[in-house]
Design goal:
TIM Barrel, 2 domains, alpha/beta
């Protein structure tokens, strides 16, 4: 069915599902925290979950770790230190592995970043979303502009040379001018990475049930283009649809997703993708979603479901991820990571090239600027071929 000659790089995602408050736009698996976070109990469940997964990746080194949520920075430094120590005991982690912690400006105590850094976290992703107090209030955020600025300053003071600032555009009432002000403020804080993405209204969110009035498409397009120009001028390379980084500071964990690498996922609602050389297949799995279910699961029972990809699934999922990268990918990567010959997608490639959505030669496939602007249309060609 597949032909894997080498296994892809392996990453680890750890999900911590609690937040101070659920934001109205958020469709992630996050839950409002009670007065007491069950840190000890959750760590026990995380390690039990991981130990059940270990046979599927035995001996494979971990290239990167991403601790996401929720708001994982709500966990105490002691709990984070215990988490990292427990991971190191159970997994071979590369000495220079990127270890990222998501943090929200409204959930950080003075000095906590420095202690996280001492525990082994070497990259932060700070959820600013905006530096405008009016927009932050409309987004349901628990922090203000000064909290966001202070969080970035604390990251520098703690020793973090590598951190990301998350920013949204297309917010209720936002103009191209105020969107550019957000970008300029973010750049002034000297992060190594900026994620800049459009607010979208997702199902099962408060905004979906009570939609806010958003800027029109013309205004959102102007925001995107003008902000991208400012980021480029400031030395941030636009390497993925919503990701901009200083040279050498691309997010290694996310690159592994976009290049169809493997990843373990532990914690409530976490997902995994694992390639097996022995069985020559790709298996996806996902864990029990609600924290209470995850905490109460007996050993080895944290998995909620699994599926094995067929050839069409693998081809489509590879292209859906890899086409997000501005520099595209080598054809050999498709063969290596999807385990398939490139002719599996030859018809869709021809249609995409005729539509000027990609540049396609003997060695590489690169989305054009037009293809990037109409990425959903480009990806749909590969969904149609796999149907």
């Amino acid at each position: 069915m597949f032909n894997f000659t080498a296994l892809p790089p392996l990453s680890l995602y750890v999900h911590i599902p609690w937040c101070v408050r659920k934001c109205p736009y958020c469709d992630f698996n996050s839950h409002t925290a009670d007065d007491r976070l069950p840190e000890k109990e959750y760590l026990t469940s995380l390690f039990s979950d991981l130990e059940h997964d270990l046979p599927s990746v035995w001996g494979r080194p971990i290239q990167s770790i991403f601790i996401g949520g929720g708001t994982p920075s709500l966990f105490s430094v002691e709990a984070m230190d215990e988490l990292l120590a427990g991971l190191r005991m159970r997994l071979p982690i590369e000495p220079m592995a990127e270890i990222t912690l998501e943090a929200n400006p409204g959930a950080i105590e003075t000095g906590k970043f420095a202690e996280f850094y001492s525990a082994g976290i070497n990259r932060l992703s700070i959820g600013c979303q905006s530096f405008n107090d009016q927009y932050l209030q409309q987004l349901g955020r628990i922090h203000g502009k000064q909290d966001a600025i202070r969080a970035a300053e604390m990251a520098h003071a703690a020793g973090f040379e590598n951190f990301n600032l998350d920013l949204m555009f297309g917010l209720p009432g936002q103009t191209p001018q105020t969107a550019m002000e957000d970008i300029k403020q973010a750049i002034a804080l000297s992060p190594s990475h900026i994620s800049h993405y459009q607010l979208t209204i997702e199902p099962n969110t408060l905004f979906h049930h009570s939609p806010p009035l958003l800027p029109d498409d013309e205004s959102k397009w102007a925001m995107q283009e003008q902000c991208e120009d400012i980021l480029t001028e400031a030395g941030f390379g636009h390497y993925e649809i919503s990701a901009h980084a200083k040279q050498g500071k691309q997010c290694q964990h996310n690159l592994n997703y976009w290049q169809f690498g493997d990843y373990l996922g532990i914690g409530a609602g976490a997902h995994a993708k694992i390639t097996s050389a022995a069985t020559q297949d790709i298996t996806r799995s996902w864990k029990l979603k609600h924290p209470a279910q995850f905490l109460s699961a007996s050993e080895g029972m944290h998995v909620s479901g699994t599926s094995v990809l067929n050839r069409q699934d693998a081809a489509f999922e590879f292209m859906m991820n890899a086409l997000r990268l501005k520099e595209g990918f080598a054809k050999s990567l498709f063969t290596e990571r999807a385990g398939l010959p490139i002719h599996q997608i030859s018809d869709a490639l021809q249609q995409a090239e005729q539509g000027k959505l990609i540049n396609h030669d003997f060695s590489s496939i690169v989305p054009t600027q037009h293809g990037w602007h109409f990425l959903n249309d480009l990806i749909a060609l590969f969904l149609e071929e796999s149907a």
